[in-house]
């Protein structure tokens, strides 16, 4: 025991001696021009791994050796590095800007480039911007912030994906989604990426930027660069937020009295009802009792609840000069607005970079993501048409499966134990390893090998007391499995050389991509025990079925790019890529995609030196061709499908016939040619910076699934037919409105306008009315009669001429021929907006920060399910609408009529079309960052607390509904209130 005490005393003495050998150096780092403090400046003891960062006020504190000459290295992106001797206890460091905006490094295809040297249309977003809006999917956080990129949420369900298009829809049936590149490797599941792991995101939009990705980049490229390790003291970041979500406006259905009035009026029209004395003629005894006691239910209110979203993340970055490591872990959980709607996501990332020597570097980026998801079968469709007089629970509080003794099951049925389950477990493993060789100055060879492995298992069980099986006599169990193996091997060689005023950069790429997918399904009916769900499939007594599927495709590519600059102000980029796709037919598998771009840095010219208004001015022009092979594998081939066959009255055999889709041996590339002209500018010492782009994309040989006549024996075929065109303008402006030592206000304005149109279809000039495709219009439009109102009593004579009567829907006679027929239909509106934009404002006052972000989508139309929720017979519930009666000559909805079904009501579909334009406050955040002095005792580098309101207010002509959803009432969109914390130590 004495020995232990002695050792402890020695250790304490040694510690005291070690502490005595160091001293504390403090200081403040500011911008030499403006005097503003610079946060997050790296302060490192030169020649060691010891260092720190400045806080939000530019202050730092660092322990340095006592009695030695110590040099501190101050480095910050966009500023000239400074080395100073740590002679003073309190230091003042002024760092000179080094064209911090123009010299920012931007990630482009297979390389990096300074922003000043860009020739294509590229927009970059840093990682800090991506974290301002807490979201399931990182793309949701940049909605409205990227010029030319249209982003909408697909639904409000837990883990719902987002819809992303870059510069409009080029294809009619093929995919229009962009290509996602994560750390140089294609990765389709962008929702897997934790926003805290992202260093930057770049969007390549014009053909000159995307051409190096050939066919894969036809719809734009979104590049994600994740964080890497840094040398010096390890840095640990921990962040977390918890948010409560609620439905962002949900319109109500009719209550009991409103439904009762509708059904009475519907029967009054037919003469069956004249007063309440006739109620027994149209209501059963149960309903009469409910009416008498004013008992009714709102099923949507019973189904919709508050949701919960929470995220917990930890990341550590560190290493030496030769070994750098970044590791992170993230847990995300979202509970949706409906019971049984839940998502859990676990992800971990490990990035390692190892320098072997001056010529060899190796590394790997890896991520594993695991999902547990419970998906709810939409009950709101059932709830919104359910008669409100049917009470869901009995007097004892037990659920009544068939209220009112009706044939429709209770919309709450799926929430009962073992009634319904839809569970999916998905694991995705993403690994990208690289070898980088720099044998001599200016030359680099890099080989990337990427692997994405995906395994998913889905189980679905619907008991006979579920909504899906309420009309069946048994339960149904289903088990689906799928796997995917995506391999990518790319070899990239680059050489850069400067000769006098001439700079050259040459890039060559050879790549092989392989995509293999398979899936299987097992199904049965009549599970022995409901608790067995979708397990023990052998215990199902009937309906046993098994199916499987396999797909494989490959893409081989060769690419070359030349970048040339003369005196740094005349820039040229030439790219050519040859792609070979296994999806296309022999003789058409290969295609060559060229592009060219040029830029002129006008602000670098001698004649611009005397002026002070423009601090930066660059003109860009580009042209290029991109391809698309986004069709299912084997679309070139016809296939056989199994059918039952009988050759006499008693004997049967299995037979095969041609499948629904015919193969096409002439299938080739879909081609898009894009012209782009852009202007980048900075004015008033770059207090205002921005870019303006005009583009024109013309696509031909569309990969289009064409409907065939039944006489052909098949239904469809994929062909290269038709043309589309997208042209528009994009504007992005960044402003520094106020900047003082205590207060700073910056803004970002984004405006995008795109005109999308079909130029030609199958025979060049004829519209495809059946599919809703019209030459001169966008791909997705609403084509129908134009509702003018309701025929009034004073218009009875005119209505009779058209075959209608007062109380019927009145539509416009477009051709003026005195009859209403299909030729009177017109295009009422498009699902795509005429323009969209965002207005982002960041305020900082001392330690407080405030972000207000407004997003707008103007000119889009929706088909409102709620507006069309009207049953003139009164057999189902309806929205509480202003319908026509002789006493109420409304122009909104036709007269109720018990003898006329909803589908039989003339022009009933015209009721749903609405202008879906909206403006919303997308994000409102208030944060507080603690000072370094306040954190000293806690041994923390930084601490920020914040609260956020997400999707707080929506302004539109559509009442009580978020039109971003597109008109559907299922899985409504949400607003969320969040509290979070960010810690670094």
UniProtKB/TrEMBL annotation:
This is TonB-linked outer membrane protein, SusC/RagA family. The keyword Membrane applies. InterPro entries: Beta-barrel_TonB, Beta-barrel_TonB_sf, CarboxyPept-like_regulatory, Plug_dom, Plug_dom_sf, TonB-dep_OMP_SusC/RagA, TonB-dep_OMP_SusC/RagA_CS, TonB-dep_rcpt-like. It is a multi-pass membrane protein. Residues 1-20 form the signal peptide. Residues 384-952 form the TonB-dependent receptor-like beta-barrel domain. It comes from Chitinophaga ginsengisegetis. It holds the Pfam family Plug. It is found in: Cell outer membrane.
């Amino acid at each position: 025991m004495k020995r232990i005490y002695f050792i402890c005393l020695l250790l304490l003495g040694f510690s005291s001696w070690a502490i005595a050998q160091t001293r504390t150096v403090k200081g403040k780092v500011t911008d030499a021009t403006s005097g503003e403090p610079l946060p997050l400046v790296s302060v490192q003891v030169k020649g060691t791994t010891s260092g720190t960062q400045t806080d939000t006020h530019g202050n730092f504190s660092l322990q340095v050796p006592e009695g030695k000459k110590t040099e501190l290295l101050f480095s910050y992106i966009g500023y000239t590095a400074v080395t100073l001797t740590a002679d003073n206890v309190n230091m003042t460091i002024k760092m000179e800007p080094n064209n911090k905006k123009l010299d920012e490094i931007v990630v482009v295809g297979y390389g990096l480039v300074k922003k000043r040297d860009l020739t294509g249309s590229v927009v970059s977003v840093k990682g800090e911007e991506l974290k301002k809006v807490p979201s399931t999917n990182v793309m949701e956080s940049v909605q409205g912030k990227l010029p030319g990129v249209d982003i909408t949420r697909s639904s409000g369900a837990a883990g719902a994906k987002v819809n992303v298009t870059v510069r409009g829809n080029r294809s009619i049936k093929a995919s229009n989604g962009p290509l996602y590149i994560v750390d140089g490797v294609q990765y389709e599941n962008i929702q897997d990426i934790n926003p805290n792991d992202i260093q930057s995101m770049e969007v390549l939009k014009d053909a000159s930027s995307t051409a190096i990705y050939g066919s894969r980049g036809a719809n734009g490229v979104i590049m994600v660069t994740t964080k890497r390790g840094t040398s010096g003291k390890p840095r640990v970041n921990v962040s977390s937020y918890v948010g409560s979500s609620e439905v962002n406006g949900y319109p109500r259905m009719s209550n009991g009295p409103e439904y009762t009035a509708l059904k009475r009026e519907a029967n009054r029209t037919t003469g069956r009802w004249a007063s309440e004395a006739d109620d027994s003629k149209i209501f059963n005894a149960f309903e009469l009792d409910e009416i008498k006691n004013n008992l009714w239910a709102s099923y949507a209110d019973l189904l919709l609840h508050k949701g919960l979203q929470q995220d917990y993340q930890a990341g550590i970055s560190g290493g030496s000069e030769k070994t750098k490591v970044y590791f992170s872990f993230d847990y995300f959980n979202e509970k949706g607005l409906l019971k049984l709607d839940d998502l859990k996501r676990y992800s971990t990332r490990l990035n390692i970079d190892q320098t072997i020597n001056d010529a060899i570097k190796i590394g790997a980026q890896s991520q594993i993501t695991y999902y547990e998801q419970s998906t709810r079968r939409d009950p709101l469709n059932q709830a919104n048409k359910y008669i409100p007089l049917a009470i869901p629970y009995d007097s004892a509080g037990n659920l009544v499966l068939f209220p009112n003794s009706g044939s429709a099951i209770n919309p709450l049925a799926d929430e009962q134990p073992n009634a319904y389950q839809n569970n999916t477990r998905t694991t995705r493993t993403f690994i990208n390893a690289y070898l980088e060789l720099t044998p001599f100055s200016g030359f680099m060879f890099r080989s990337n090998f990427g692997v994405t492995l995906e395994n998913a298992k889905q189980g679905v069980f619907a008991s006979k007391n579920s909504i899906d099986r309420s009309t069946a006599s048994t339960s149904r169990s289903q088990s689906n499995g799928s796997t995917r193996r995506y391999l990518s091997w790319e070899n990239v060689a680059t050489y850069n050389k400067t000769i006098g005023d001439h700079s050259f950069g040459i890039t060559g790429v050879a790549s092989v991509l392989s995509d293999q997918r398979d899936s299987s399904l097992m199904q049965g009916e009549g599970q022995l025990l409901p608790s067995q769900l979708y397990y023990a499939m052998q215990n199902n007594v009937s309906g046993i079925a098994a199916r499987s599927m396999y797909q494989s495709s490959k893409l081989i590519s060769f690419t070359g790019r030349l970048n040339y600059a003369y005196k740094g102000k005349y820039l040229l980029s030439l790219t050519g890529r040859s792609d070979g796709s296994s999806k296309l037919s022999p003789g058409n598998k290969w295609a060559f995609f060229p592009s060219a771009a040029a830029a002129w840095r006008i602000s670098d010219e001698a004649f611009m030196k005397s002026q002070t208004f423009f601090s930066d001015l660059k003109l860009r022009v580009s042209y290029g061709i991109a391809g698309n092979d986004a069709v299912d594998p084997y679309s070139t081939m016809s296939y056989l499908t199994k059918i039952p066959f009988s050759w006499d009255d008693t004997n049967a055999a299995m037979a095969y016939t041609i499948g629904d889709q015919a193969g096409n041996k002439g299938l080739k590339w879909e081609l898009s040619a894009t012209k782009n002209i852009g202007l980048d500018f900075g004015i008033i010492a770059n207090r205002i910076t921005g870019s303006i782009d005009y583009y024109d994309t013309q696509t031909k040989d569309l990969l289009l699934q064409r409907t065939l006549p039944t006489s052909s024996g098949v239904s469809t075929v994929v062909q290269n037919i038709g043309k589309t065109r997208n042209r528009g303008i994009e504007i992005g402006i960044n402003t520094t409105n106020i900047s003082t030592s205590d207060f700073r206000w910056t803004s970002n304005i984004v405006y995008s306008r795109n005109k999308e149109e079909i130029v030609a279809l199958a025979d060049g000039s004829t519209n495809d009315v059946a599919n809703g495709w019209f030459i001169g219009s966008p791909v997705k439009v609403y084509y129908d009669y134009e509702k003018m109102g309701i025929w009034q009593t004073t218009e009875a004579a005119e209505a009779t001429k058209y075959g209608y009567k007062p109380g019927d829907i009145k539509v416009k006679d477009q051709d003026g021929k005195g009859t209403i027929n299909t030729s009177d239909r017109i295009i009422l509106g498009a699902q795509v907006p005429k323009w969209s934009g965002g207005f982002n404002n960041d305020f900082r006052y001392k330690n407080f920060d405030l972000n207000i972000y407004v997003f707008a989508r103007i000119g889009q139309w929706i088909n409102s399910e709620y507006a069309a929720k009207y049953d003139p017979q009164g057999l189902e519930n309806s929205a509480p609408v202003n319908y026509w009666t002789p006493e109420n000559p409304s122009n909104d909805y036709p007269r109720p009529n018990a003898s006329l079904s909803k589908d039989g009501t003339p022009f009933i579909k015209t009721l749903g079309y609405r202008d879906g334009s909206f403006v919303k406050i997308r994000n409102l955040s208030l944060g507080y960052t603690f000072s370094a002095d306040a954190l000293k005792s806690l041994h923390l580098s930084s601490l920020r607390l914040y609260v956020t309101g997400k999707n707080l207010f929506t302004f539109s002509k559509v009442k009580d509904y978020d039109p971003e959803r597109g008109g559907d009432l299922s899985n409504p969109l949400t607003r969320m209130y969040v509290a979070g914390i960010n810690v670094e130590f």
